[in-house]
Amino acid sequence: MQLKDVTWERDGGVVTLTMNRPEKLNAQSMDMMDSLIAAFEEIERDDDIKCAIWTGAGRGWSVGRDFSDPKLAGAAPYGPEFPRGTRLLPLSLGGRLQYALWRCRKPIIAAVNGHMLGGAFSAGLMADFRIASDRAKFGALFVKRGRVPDNGGVYMLVKIMGLAQALEFMYSGEIIDAQRAVELGLANRVVPHDDLMPACMEIARSIASGPSLAIEFMKKMAYRTFEGDSMESLTAYEAFAQSVCEASEDGEEGVRSFVERREPVFTGR
């Protein structure tokens, strides 16, 4: 897999993806978006990958789209250079990335090391959760550009923050610090900057050592609830998920370890 403007590091079942344009605070070029899409699609496909950490190199997580990239000028994902499956989707350029994130069943942790702004802010909301450095900043700056939040930003903000808080946040174009982001539900916690990656790796390794089928089903059920599934529909899916988990090697190990009064050793099968 060839990646440009993104680095890929593998540590057992954990992959760390780093947006790598530090000189531009990781502004998202077309090459970066294409590489992130390819990376998240590979994470989705590879069953040996259990969890992903998504971060940025240098001082910024990402400040959004790089408007100086000629490949992005007036572009839309409808031309023959794009895969046919992409051309069937009514998406913006950044929406292709959001779609890849939304359908990835593996847990994704955003390690927010600096500014998360604009379209990159919308993208970062698609991670399962965000751990923020005490230097991190968050903002949906679209109103200051005479635009609306794109790539699912409005949907995610209203779902995460609630209607009134989301509207105030979008109308103002305010940039907030990490502690305020936690208060609004945009980040799970704040850690000292130098502890960010170790903290995220500890969480990711814990997830990767768990029962992968159960964890991926949890994500699917949580997102179905988030999207408004009925109780009847969700409990029917829950029964299906439970039957698959019970028949898995990890399901058997979970019961066996309980009977034997020891910690379970899961393999992801």
Describe this structure in words.
The protein has 269 residues and is α/β, with parallel strands linked by helices. The protein folds into 2 domains: 6-208, Alpha-Beta Complex (2-enoyl-CoA Hydratase, Chain A, domain 1), CATH 3.90.226.10; 212-259. Helix content is 43%, strand content 16%. The chain contains 11 helices and 10 strands. The protein has a 6-stranded mixed beta sheet, sandwiched between helices. Strands 4-6-8-9 form a 4-stranded mixed beta sheet. It is globular, with a radius of gyration of 19 Å.
Topology record:
Layout lengths: L5 E6 L2 E6 L10 H16 L5 E6 L3 E3 L21 H4 L5 H10 L5 E5 L2 E3 H7 L4 E5 L3 E3 L13 H9 L1 H10 L2 E3 H6 L5 E3 L4 H13 L3 H15 L4 H16 L2 H11 L10
Parallel strand pairs: 2-3, 3-5, 4-6, 5-7, 6-8, 7-10
Antiparallel strand pairs: 1-2, 8-9
Provide a count of the helices.
11
Read across the widest sheet, the strand sequence of neighbours is 1-2-3-5-7-10
- Percent of residues in helical segments? 40-55%
In terms of DSSP E residues, the strand content is 15-25%
Quaternary arrangement of the chains shown?
single chain
List keywords for this structure.
10 strands, 269 residues, alpha/beta, 2-enoyl-CoA Hydratase, Chain A, domain 1, 4-stranded mixed β-sheet, 6-stranded mixed β-sheet
Short description:
The chain is an alpha/beta fold and 269 residues long.
